[in-house]
Amino acid sequence: MHSIESTYEKIGGDRTVRRIVEAFYPRVQQHPLLKPLFPEDLEPVKEKQYRFLTQFLGGPPLYTSIHGHPMLRARHLRFPITPQRAQAWLQCMAEALDEVGVTGEARDEMWNRLVIAAHHMVNTPDEAGD
């Protein structure tokens, strides 16, 4: 019997997820729409993102084992996530995936799920005139 390989395995597992997180957060810190939403010390945020992405992509349930169910939208409601911010987040992630070299079918699978998640997080309309 052949087991189906997860997206996590297809992109290279733990090492690749770590590299994505390390490539992603410097971009977030530089982005004018995203920077205000994040604390100065990104280490705890990066660790949570690493655990979340590992689980989200089909790897070990690192996030749930420590933090419980992800409940993404509920956990992010205190932050004003606009459509523009969701798009900015996706742009930073796309650049991180490019930097790390995630390509092909695995990238498409990952990207499709990230787009759905990012749009699900929107809880505030864009400012008029932006």
TrEMBL record:
Q: Does the keyword NADP apply?
A: no
- CDD domains, sorted: TrHb2_Bs-trHb-like_O
For binding heme, which residues are annotated in this chain's numbering? Answer: H119
Cofactor(s) recorded for this entry are: heme
A GO molecular function held by the record: heme binding
> Does the record bear Transport in its keywords?
yes
Alphabetized, the UniProt keywords read:
Heme, Iron, Metal-binding, Transport
Instruction: Write out the similarity annotation.
Output: Belongs to the truncated hemoglobin family. Group II subfamily.
Q: What is this protein called?
A: Globin
Which organism is this protein's natural source? Polycladomyces abyssicola
